[in-house]
Structure formats: C-alpha cells, structure tokens
Amino acid sequence: MSEVRIAAEPRTAFGKGAARKIRRADKVPAVLYGHGIDPKHLTLPGHEVLLALRTPNVLIRLEGDGVDELALPKGVQRDPIKGFVEHVDLLLVKRGEKVTVEIPVTTVGDVNSDGLLDQQLVQIAVEAEATHIPTGIEVDVEGLEIGTVITAAQLQLPQGSTLAADPEAVILQVINKPVEVLEAAEEGAAAEAPAAEGETAEASAE
C-alpha cells in the first residue's frame, strides 16, 4: 500500500469557533492518537484530505513541524449536506504493526439466471500489517446456483491477511427470485414475442 503524504500543522486553538475558522480556510481539524502518546491536535489541508479519503483505509504520512508519523483514518466527520470533511481522527501506526480494519467485499460475474444474488455483508474485518492493508476482496459468483451460501471462512483473503470476523458470518447467498420479478420477466418475454413475429411477417412480405 502506497503512502499519501499530507502536510500537518500543530493546532493550539480549540472549540467550535476555532474549528469553524479552520474550515473557512479550507483546512480540516484532526487528532492523532495511539501507542500511548498524548493526542496531537493538528490542522490538515482540506482538499488533500478529501482526495486521500477516497481510498479505503488509506495510509497517511503526516509531515510537518514536529510531526513525521504514519496514520490510518479511524473516524471521519462530514457535513451531512455538502459532504466536505469536518474532522478526522487518526490512529498512529508503525511499520510491521498488525491492525484490524474493515475492507470492501465486491462480486464479479453473474449467478445462475434463475437465482438472485443476496449480498449481506459489503465489508469484512481482517488483520493485516499497517503498511500492507488490502484494498478489498473479490468473490467470483459466476454461475452460482440457488441455495449457494458463501461464508467469511470461504473468502480468499489477500496474502498476509487473516480473518478478524466470525468465520460463519454469511457474506452472500443465491436465493429464488421474488414472484414479482419472475412475473415481470415473463411479461417482458410475452411482449417481445408478438413484436418479433410482426417483424418476421413484414420481412416475408417484402
């Protein structure tokens, strides 16, 4: 996993008023904690933070006056309407250290046409080195039949990662399509049939 370098400034002013002033300057208040250190209050550039947080579990290298640390975002507060970052909690990590994180679970392929994919978990907890956190796990569902169940224990974890969740947790399953879905498909097929017959008749007349 590559590091995203972000300039960090020590923060000495606190409270809602100070935080609003920081945000008006297109910056983000943050707190760095972990490994028994006293929390460090920082100010980070807003745009760089927004870009970095697009990557799940992004590894951030904080650089600045009195700061040169690796950190993982552990808590992000966003404006509920505009979506910009209002505050970030950062967990201090060391190279070689194991951390537990939630990573995305995605699927590739299509299940059997008679079935419907029911994905119950879109994230799963794994333990990995702080500097080698996987970006996610892909599950191949191509051709899976109705009744198939994939549990956490069956996931193909990236090298160096171990499962940190209940191994019996259901990730996804293939279920019967609801009646309304089947009826809609049948109606669509019935509507297409006369149209196709009409096109054939016209072609013959020509």
Textual characterization of the structure:
The protein folds into 2 domains: 91 residues, Beta Barrel (Ribosomal Protein L25, Chain P), CATH 2.40.240; 81 residues, RNA Polymerase Alpha Subunit, Chain A, domain 2 (Beta Complex). The strands form 3 sheets. It has a 6-stranded mixed barrel. Strands 10-7-9-12 form a 4-stranded mixed beta sheet, with no helix packed on it. The protein has 3 helices and 13 strands, in the order βαββαββββββββββα. It is elongated and about 75 Å long. The chain is an alpha+beta fold. A hairpin with a 2-residue loop joins strand 4 and strand 5. It is 21% helix and 44% strand.
Main sheet properties: 6 strands, mixed, barrel
DSSP strand content: 35-45%
| Domain unit count | 2
What would you report as the Rg, rounded to the nearest angstrom? 25 Å
CATH class categorisation of the largest domain:
Mainly Beta
Helix content: 10-25%
| Secondary structure: number of strands | 13
Number of helices: 3
Strand order of the largest sheet: 1-3-2-6-5-4
What overall geometry do the principal axes of the alpha carbons give?
elongated
Query: H/E order of the elements?
Result: EHEEHEEEEEEEEEEH
Q: Which spans of ≥5 residues are poorly predicted at pLDDT below 50?
A: none
Please identify the structural class as seen in this structure: alpha+beta
Question: Distance N terminus to C terminus?
Answer: 64 Å
The CATH superfamily of the largest domain turns out to be: Ribosomal Protein L25, Chain P
- The CATH architecture term of the largest domain is Beta Barrel
Mean pLDDT: 89
CATH topology of the largest domain: Ribosomal Protein L25, Chain P
